């Protein structure tokens, strides 16, 4: 015999009611999820991220995953007897490293596709090479040549739109071509941002290894829940933002100024952070929105 704890059950109903306006508002809207960091290495977390994205899809949103493969690429570079090298956060990518990066990213890409398919959603794994999606030019690190690292200069969204139209969940790894059709590795944050802009995404969510944006990087109690682009700029100018967050925040501002309504910086180490951010009023990370943007719902639950 089993009993029912009505209080517990009512809480579950409240969760669903809180989610209702978001399910309505983001219906048919594109949400780009940049997937990387710890949430990609830990198998348990990985499953939860994929469950979240599948749920977003099943309730009627149009999620797109853009993923990295950083740690896995370094592992295979080492296995091949080479030493991974970075300059200002960018991987120095010579010809053999590019080959490994491409192999690893494609492998990670297909493993994500399998997980999504296992959960009953149609997914299609592609790289920026497919359909000529990501056209790049060579990126330099403070004037230094770092090999085949590309900066996105053009996004052809035809393939993404075809996949979305046929109800596939696109899973994209950040590799692109230059004008001579040579493959380039692209920083996954940059690729996610460029793709979100190009498809006019409603949202762009970054899964990171940090709680969100802190007012002061040295004060972990100063996590900011909501930030306008103007406030984000002020923060950047104030010099209290941690090193790793700088390019991220710049990417966020850039995305919003080019039409993305909201950008979310989330802690991928929190299980189900995507659901907790998107389906609740307060969220769990930092939400960045354009100046004067419509405020989040206040359903008073
Ligand atoms: N970090 C925050 N303040 N998040 C608020 C999120 C609000 C809402 N669920 C959304 O996705 O737009």
Question: Would you mind describing this structure in some detail?
Answer:
- Its main location: cytoplasm.
- The record marks 34, 248 as: Transition state stabilizer.
- This is Acetylglutamate kinase.
- The protein is α/β, with parallel strands linked by helices and 301 residues long.
- Helices cover 41% and strands 24% of the residues.
- It is built from ten helices and 14 strands.
- It has helices spanning 6-25, 38-41, 43-58, 70-79, 95-118, 158-165, 188-198, 229-238, 245-257, 273-278, and strands at residues 30-35, 62-67, 86-87, 90-91, 123-127, 134-141, 144-155, 169-173, 175-177, 183-186, 203-208, 226-228, 262-267, 286-289.
- The strands form three sheets. An eight-stranded mixed sheet has the order 5-8-2-1-11-13-14-12, sandwiched between helices.
- A hairpin with a 2-residue loop joins β6 (134-141) and β7.
- α4 (70-79) crosses α5 (95-118), α7 packs parallel to α9 (245-257) and α8 (229-238) packs antiparallel against α9.
- It is globular, with a radius of gyration of 19 Å.
- It starts with 5 loop residues before the first helix and ends in a 12-residue tail after the last strand.
- The model has no long low-confidence stretch (mean pLDDT 93).
- The structure holds arginine.
- Arginine is lined by residues 22, 225-226, 262, 277-278, 280, 282-283, 285-287, 296.
- Arginine binds next to α10 and β14.
